């Protein structure tokens, strides 16, 4: 296995991306059920933390910009030491981690890390733009959809900036296998358990340890199913383990990523052959990580949306059959066109309970999360800001203890699998 000397210090990269808030709303798209690892800072609402390209990423936005800082391990910080003792399990560390789960050749490992890390630093903005697909102007799409759909026009007027993330296919697929008969909070918990128990530590920040998403190889190993059942995954444990084994047999992550290059119907058919992947999960993966903009996941929310405003006959149906599933998708594809999956995401987000009352623009006062949070007020009683700070510090201490416990358990589990 590869051995790393890890050290976390100052950001390895930071910057600002010009993008108006009408084009992207971080407070909605990071928690509307697309991705499950983004967390908002409770002490500083509007600041988000997640793991992308095996780095810790902090994001916040104003009306005109997205600001970011990236934390992680670099040779300049730690003199990264790489020891490759098993060529079949090597993980690429020197090419911006654009393909974090791909097994590289020996020549890749021997490349100059220093030169590649400089390239990484210059490429983070491009990677973030790609993740948010900022090359696609949703304002123009909203207008097209509104021109042909008065219902969309009415609902979307308070829900601008909804867009589809372009996620890593491995993380996206296994996250949605966890979504079966589940809600967003529990899915997020399961995804974190996968990362803590099978991923690699990418760094520590504010008392919390962050992990990469596990590789297909890690999820395919013998014993993973029983371990996941012990962690509370239920029947999904089998789906995760068996699907990982199937993907390895088909060619691993290379095969999965290659589905981006084939037509939507073919990609969906390939995904449906995996254990535990039904039509909705396949469509989520096609839409959110395989560049199939006309893929349209249909669940209870979308079914009800269709019945209320588009296909009244659906209100008489008692269950969502395969036939109805396809009819709903085809109806919206005919109405909205080649980006029907994106339009569906707007109405889906607007239908979620947590967003129905949240139509205000995020505070422009969220400028820089490094700003001092010291309460300068004087007086006998503690101010609300001071109380929030004390509560956050207490929670950080509790999180640190819990993280240490989790790391010890994960380490024991990994050692057990190796033995």
Verbal overview:
With 419 residues, the chain is of the alpha+beta class. 47% of the residues lie in helices and 9% in strands. Strand 2 and strand 3 (48-52) form a beta hairpin. The longest helix is centred in the last third of the chain and has 35 residues, at 384-418.
Structural class: alpha+beta
Order of helices and strands: EHEEEEHHHHHHHEEHHHHHHHHHH
How many helices does DSSP assign? 18
Strand content: 5-15%
Task: Name some characteristics of this structure.
alpha+beta, 9% strand, 419 residues, five-stranded antiparallel sheet, two-stranded antiparallel sheet
Write the layout of secondary structure elements.
Layout: E1 13-18, H1 26-29, E2 39-40, E3 48-52, E4 55-61, E5 65-71, H2 75-78, H3 106-109, H4 113-132, H5 138-148, H6 150-156, H7 169-177, H8 184-198, E6 201-205, E7 208-211, H9 216-220, H10 224-230, H11 236-250, H12 253-258, H13 264-272, H14 279-289, H15 300-309, H16 322-336, H17 340-351, H18 384-418
Antiparallel strand pairs: 1-5, 2-3, 3-4, 4-5, 6-7
Helix pairs in contact: 5-6, 7-14, 10-11, 13-14, 16-17
Describe the structure in brief.
This protein is an alpha+beta fold and 419 residues long. Helices cover 47% and strands 9% of the residues. The chain has 18 helices and 7 strands.
């Amino acid at each position: 296995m590869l051995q790393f000397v890890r050290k976390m210090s100052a950001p390895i990269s930071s910057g600002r991306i010009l993008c108006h808030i009408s084009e992207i709303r971080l407070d909605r798209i990071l928690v509307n059920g697309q991705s499950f690892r983004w967390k908002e800072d409770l002490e500083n609402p509007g600041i988000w933390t997640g793991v992308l390209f095996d780095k810790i990423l902090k994001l916040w936005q104003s009306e005109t910009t997205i600001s970011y800082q990236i934390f992680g391990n670099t040779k300049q910080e730690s003199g990264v030491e790489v020891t490759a003792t098993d060529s079949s399990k090597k993980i690429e560390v020197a090419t911006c981690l654009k393909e974090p789960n791909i097994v590289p050749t020996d020549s890749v490992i021997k490349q100059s890390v220093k030169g590649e890390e400089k390239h990484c630093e210059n490429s983070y903005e491009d990677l973030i733009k790609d993740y948010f697909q900022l090359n696609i102007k949703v304002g123009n799409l909203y207008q097209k959809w509104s021109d042909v759909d008065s219902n969309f026009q009415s609902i979307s007027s308070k829900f601008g900036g909804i867009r589809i993330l372009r996620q890593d296919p491995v993380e996206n697929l296994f996250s949605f296998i966890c979504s079966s008969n589940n809600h967003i909070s529990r899915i997020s918990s399961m995804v974190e358990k996968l990362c803590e128990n099978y991923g690699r530590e990418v760094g520590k920040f504010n008392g919390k340890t962050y992990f990469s998403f596990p590789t297909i190889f890690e999820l395919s190993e013998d014993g993973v199913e029983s371990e996941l059942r012990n962690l509370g995954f239920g029947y999904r444990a089998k789906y995760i383990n068996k699907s990982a084994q199937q993907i390895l047999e088909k060619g691993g992550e290379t095969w999965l990523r290659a589905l981006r290059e084939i037509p939507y119907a073919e990609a969906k058919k390939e995904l449906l052959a995996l254990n535990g992947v039904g039509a909705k999960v396949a469509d989520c993966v096609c839409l959110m990580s395989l560049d199939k903009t006309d893929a349209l996941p249909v669940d209870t929310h979308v079914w009800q949306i269709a019945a209320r405003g588009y296909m009244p006959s659906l209100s008489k149906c008692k269950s969502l059959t395969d036939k109805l599933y396809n009819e709903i998708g085809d109806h919206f594809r005919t109405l909205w066109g080649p980006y029907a999956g994106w339009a569906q995401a707007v109405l889906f987000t607007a239908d979620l309970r947590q967003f129905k009352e949240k139509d205000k623009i995020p505070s422009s006062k969220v400028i820089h999360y490094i700003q001092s949070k010291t309460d300068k007020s004087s007086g006998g009683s503690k101010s609300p800001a001071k109380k929030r700070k004390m509560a956050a510090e207490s929670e950080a201490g509790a999180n640190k203890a819990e993280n240490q416990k989790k790391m010890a358990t994960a380490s024991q589990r990994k050692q057990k699998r190796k033995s």
